[in-house]
Amino acid sequence: MKHIIRLRWIVLAVWIAAAVLLMWQAPDMAKLVREKGQLTVPDGYPSKIAGEILDKHSSKEKGVESFIVVFHSKEKLTDSQLGEIENTVNRLKNEKDRLNIESVTTHFGDKDLESQLVSKDGKTVMTLLNVKMKGKEVKDVRKPLEQAIHTKDVDAYMTGNSLINEDVVISSEKGLAKTEVITVIFILIVLILVFRSVMAPLIPLLTVGMTYLISQSVVAFLIDRMDFPVSTFTQTFLVAVLFGIGTDYCILLLSRYKEELSDGNEVGTAILNTYKTAGKTVIFSGLAVMVGFASIGFASFKLYQSAVGVAVGVFVLLVALFTLVPFFMATLKKGLFWPVKKDISHSQSRIWGWMGKLSIIRPLIALGIVGILTIPLLISYDGELSFNSLDEIGNEYDSVKAFNIVSDSFGPGEVMPVQIVLENDDSMKNKEYLTIIEMISNKLEKLDHVNKVRAITRPMGDKLEEIYVKKQADEMGKGIEQGTDGINTIKNGLNDASKTLQDNKPQLQEATGSIGKLTDGTKGLQSGIGQLQTALGDIEKGIRSGSSGAARLKEGVKEAQEQALNIQQKNRQLLGGLQAAESGFPKLVEGYNNVSVPLQNALEQLMSLEKPLQELMENHPEIAADPNFQQIQGIIHKAARQVAIAKGTVSALNPELDKVQSGLQKANAGLTELTNGLGQYANGMQLIIDGLGQLQSGMDQAANGQNQVIGKIPEISKGLDQIASGQQQLQTGFGKVSGQLDQLTQGLSDSSTGLAKIGDGLDNAQNYLEDLSKDTNLQQSGINIPDQLLKDEQFQRVFDVYMSKDGKMTTVDVILDTNPYSNPSMKMIHQIEQTVKEETKGTKLENAHVGIGGITSTHRDLETMSNSDYNKTVTYMMIGIVLVLIILLRSLIMPVYLIVSLLLTYYSSIAVTEIIFVDIMGYPGINWETPFFGFVMLMALGVDYSIFLMARFSEYKELDVKTGILLAMKNMGTVIMSAAIILAGTFAAMLPSGVLSMLQIATVVLTGLLFYALIILPLFVPVLISLLGKANWWPFTKRDHSGSDHSSNHHGISQ
């Protein structure tokens, strides 16, 4: 110390040079916070795994951020406003290169996206941007985009996780600036009041200010060159801690310096005595704080580690306190306390003196006061935490405004959904994997707080009904119902056909018999024609022989005419029967053909049932063992065979019917020709009869005419031969028809019976499928993805959205109905994890890599990690502080109750903070960062006051315990209360920052420090000290310090 005093000007020059050089060369701290201060999750956590899988399979460039542009109006957007929004979107597309936009997703030009990007009330429109950062900071990319999205008559904002984080940084920077100014002003005012001097307050400000500038530069170099942890808290904590404890230490040193001067010591001696006593206290206090913050380095969480920079600042502060402060003491001497002109004196604390007496004389009352103040707080404390980053900065920032608008218009989960990422070794572009994905999605949709699920099998958030067996069974049931109706129609037609054939069987038999008679008549007619030809020959001879036989000829002619007319009459009857048979025969043929068509239709429908039944059996093998299903399948096979037989019978009969019809046509033609010939014959006879009167004159003509008639007779005989032949064929055909008709009738009857059984089987199948469609278990797991769906062009585009090109990675988006930052949302992550695990167990995705992304999952991982780090870091910190206390106090007992006193203070102050921010202000919980940093700050800084008091108490070891602690309290009370007020004030300066976590941490530390300095330390600790007596120094022995530099004779102790 003597060398420092002697070389003090050189020391000052070194400090100034170091400050200038470091500030000149140091990296920009704000830029480092943006680049390296974002929250990150270590490897192995679900959100980290999800990010790694997405990066591995993503076709996007690295460094691409997703922004949401929100267009909003208080009233429903008009067509004019929508037109302006579309113009803005088109401007973004046209200026993609200038604005670093990779892609724009909008509903303009794609109506399928309208339900997702336009709110139901029509007040809000979203447009999604993928922005290429290209190594730029968010603020640099953001500014031109904000200018580009400006839209006439419509509010336009942007949001996204990176934008919200950027606004948190901006808010922190603004808060830091406010904190620095308020801290300096507050400390200056308090120091003036404490020292009643204008000069003395400047010493701590100059010392700590120099420390802060150098510490910040050193930490910036460490961050830039050695990846030292950093966050938005780093600078703020540096300001608060350095100005807080730096001022406290300066007060301690200056107060002791003032006390030494008041004892009449020279400046040099006073400085040396100050650093021998108070300097020792400062060293150990600083070490405790430094160890406390350095222990944070054992944490895994980068945010927690970022407070390690404070340890660097504390080290620089200790160097400054032992170099710069002696400079000011030695240079200003007693002028340090200017304008005080009277003798410098040191006053004791009356308040702490009174509380010390109460603790020693009335310990139960003192403990009662402590209990009354702390127990209700401890009971009321719930420990509920909040991870809502939006609460950090309030609604004044555009990113938060946009988020709240989207949350209100579309639901909070739409902005930042939970994204499940599945990675498999094989391609998942097939039915089996898609079925598993749909089963996962279906199960997730049924969880509490899940609004909807979007996946490759439900791209719009609604499940595709056509891939569910329930829907397919319903459709198949309807088809079977139609088939049943068709089969019933066929059955009825077959019954009618069978009945008609049965009814017409006697007529057919009668017709067959009549044809036989007709054939005999035709043969008789042919014989009569022969006789007629002989008679005509005789007549001709008679005519030729002369008129002697005219009378007899005339009689013969009449007789021949009568025979011809009789034959003609019978022939006409026969012709009428044949014509009737011929005209009715096409109807018979048509009837048989009509029977063939429904039989063919029935056969085709029965065959069409085989494929869906086969697919149903393949997709659900368990159905194959079902007796009902087997019966249905057997009935359908048997019916198909019977219908095929019936159809074959009808087909075989048709050619025979054609032959019969051909015979009828020939017979009719012959009979027609015969009838015409008989008519001519009768007319000729009439001419003969009429001409007999002119026999003599027309004998030659008669003979010639007779010769013509005789010439026609062979043609008539030939026609009768044809008729007889046709009649014989007709009779043979009708005989075959009659024989096959019985088979046909029986076949139709059997087919009708078989179709009735098929109808019954189809009714059973329809009932089974109806029950199948109503089965709730099947509704949940019965999935059958049709092949045609996979080939659908529109469905192929879905693969590009939800699956990687190689098919080995797919995503499932879970949209919650709660705020993605809220505790209920975070609790959902575990349920989502378990659901995915359960649904993939025993499937081909059982060993797939699963990650869960999204801000909700990230914060849940932060919670898990922070809880783990909290316990670990707190343990290390406690061990470090206890070791420092053991070395300083040479006791194992005192560190224990001092730590207990600090823990009691911490939990009381965190309970007060919860009452203020949760119970009164209505926040969902204490910010998740608050407990850790509040604990670290309060323990590291609160232990200072314990050291202040106990170090002074250790100076009075030669006195009895009660006298020593009371004297220490009187002498240190003012210093500790002033230090607590100043340190609390530096943290109170964080309150106007507007950053919620800072407000809460400040409230914990502010409340804790005041509570510790005014209640716990003066009432709780002295009770334990006085009760333990000499055991305070266990296991070390109490030693006398008669040679102490401090003389107690100057301090009267009044009990």
UniProtKB/TrEMBL annotation:
InterPro entries: MMPL_dom, Mycobact_MmpL, SSD, xxxLxxG_rpt. It is a multi-pass membrane protein. The chain crosses the membrane at residues 7-26, 175-195, 202-223, 235-254, 282-301, 307-332, 360-379, 873-889, 896-920, 932-951, 972-995, 1001-1029. Residues 899-1027 form the SSD domain. Coiled coil: none annotated. One of its GO terms (cellular component) is plasma membrane. It is found in: Cell membrane. Its main location: membrane. It holds the Pfam family MMPL. Keywords: Cell membrane, Membrane, Transmembrane, Transmembrane helix. It comes from the Bacteria. PANTHER family: MEMBRANE PROTEIN MJ1562-RELATED (PTHR33406), MEMBRANE PROTEIN YDGH-RELATED (PTHR33406:SF6). Belongs to the resistance-nodulation-cell division (RND) (TC 2.A.6) family. MmpL subfamily. This is MMPL family transporter. It comes from Paenibacillus larvae.
